[in-house]
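Weekly puzzle thread! Below is a chain. First person to post its structure in token form gets bragging rights.
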Amino acid sequence: MAPSTRPPTTKIAAPALLVACLAAGCGGGASSDSVASPSDPPSSSSTADVSVSSSIAPGSVLARPLMWRARVNSGDAVDHVDFFVDGHRRWTEHEAPYEFNQGALFVPWVLGAGRHHLAVRVVTTSGTTAATDTTVTVVDRAATALPTGRYVRTVTRADLQRVVPYRDAAHGAFGETTSLGRWTMDVQPNGVLVLDLAKADPYDGFYLPYRTFGDRLVLYGTAPWLQPHINQPSIFCEPEPPASYRWSASPDGSLTITPIGHSCADRDTAVVGTWHRR
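Winning reply:
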């Protein structure tokens, strides 16, 4: 997503939204287009009039999902706040509150276990900057029983009909429904599901961090900052809250996902069902 605008208020189905965003830019937004050198992240700095701090304290040990916020003190109007992960700018926010990934949970295990560098930088309308950087340690707790690999399923009109009772604005649904057709799902060992509408080419999918607790699967919302292409949208609902599902694997290698409760109809349209291993 381009960093210059907030997300659109009207959602478009996945392929159409991709074309629109490529043309005009979407998002709050993920921004790997302009990165700092991994060996030269923003250094800590401040002035009498401008300072910024991170809600993630130096030396933190991160194992669970958490909010990542920048706290800004500025006598000048703020233009934007950048969030850096290991030296790469992964999110830019133009409006307060200045939250990484539009306030969705930051899931640390996708970075891998070990030391990582997080930084925030504020830029005012006059060009003054201030930054702070933090070293954290990630404890890799993404171990999952969910069988890794690529799966496929076809989303049909019956899937759309199934979610009608809770597809409303109160649950973040807006605009067009999830696209019908053949979808793929890559279950990655780093605790990320990548959902991809197979007929959209090129397309790199919706990134959803996850964990399993026995037969319970928890999805933590989309993570567009993980996407290889920044202009590609990654929104099923707005906001997209964490949600629990049941999962089971069959001897034939298929994977069945069923909902526990109802929090995002458009995500459930794509995710819920039986997936067959490719």
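Puzzle host: Confirmed. Bonus trivia for everyone else. The helical segments are 14-24, 157-162, 265-271.
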